[in-house]
Amino acid sequence: MSDRDTILLIEQCEADAEVTTQALRAARLANPIVRVPDAGEALALLLPDGKSGRSRMGELPCVVILDVRGPLFDSVEFLRLLRASVRTAQLPVVVLSSAVQLRMRIEDLRFERVAFIEKPLGFANLTRATMSLGFGIRLVDDAARR
User: Fold this and answer.
1) DSSP assignment of 102-116, as one string?
2) pLDDT tens digits along 54-91
3) Who's near 103: CB < 8 A, 6+ residues apart?
4) Are 73 and 81 in contact (CB under 8 A)?
5) How many helical (H) and strand (E) elements, i.e. helices and strands, does the chain have?
6) pTM for the whole thing?
7) Please, what's the b/e burial string for 66-81 (b: 16 or more CB within 10 A of its CB; e: otherwise)?
8) Taken in order 12, 110, 137, 120, is the CA torsion positive or negative?
9) What is the pLDDT of residues 95-146, one digit of tens each?
10) Where are the alpha helices (DSSP H) in the chain?
């Protein structure tokens, strides 16, 4: 699989990252998952650097899953920086949150290709986000694994 099949998970808490990864695997997703601890590191992977003009992640992931808590950037600032780049302007982002105020704030800013999943992450919520954003996920094929 290429980077384009990858799910980029931004989660600072190791235990929460493990729970989210387990939920994605329980939903039978086969996509590779790359985890970074904060939005700053995610931006360093996704956005071109000033010297070479290339990003550290060759192809964009199929989706970014963003936990709203973060020490360097809040979700709104992360989305602003992501949308300001031509490279990442249309990258699908799923925001994990149970905070209604944050959801309203992000919706008021009218960022495109952003979906919300209320914690805890589950297959039904993930499926709704996938359909609303139009990104592809790969399900495990049990027949192919035998």
Assistant:
1) HHHHHHHTT-SSEEE
2) 677 778 999 998 886 655 567 788 888 998 999 899 99
3) 95, 97, 116
4) yes
5) 6, 5
6) 0.76
7) bbbbbeebebbebbeb
8) positive
9) 887 666 666 666 666 777 777 776 666 656 666 666 666 655 554 444 444 4
10) 14-26, 39-46, 75-84, 100-108, 123-133, 142-145
